[in-house]
Please model this.
Amino acid sequence: MSQELSSLAEAIIAYQKKYDKTDGEMAYGSRLTVEKFHAIKTGELQPNSDEQSALQSLIAKKPM
Model:
């Protein structure tokens, strides 16, 4: 699971760089608090299955 979280964090960072998105925009889009989003992105917090699904869904879409 650690490898999967690492992959999720890498995917989040790549998405943010590609589309120039801030942690605040990403948190809003995934319906997480900025603090929780940042902690997940940095590996300080493991997302539950709903949070992980929300983040994966967000990064799977091209922003409008």
Q: What stands out?
A: The radius of gyration is 10 Å.
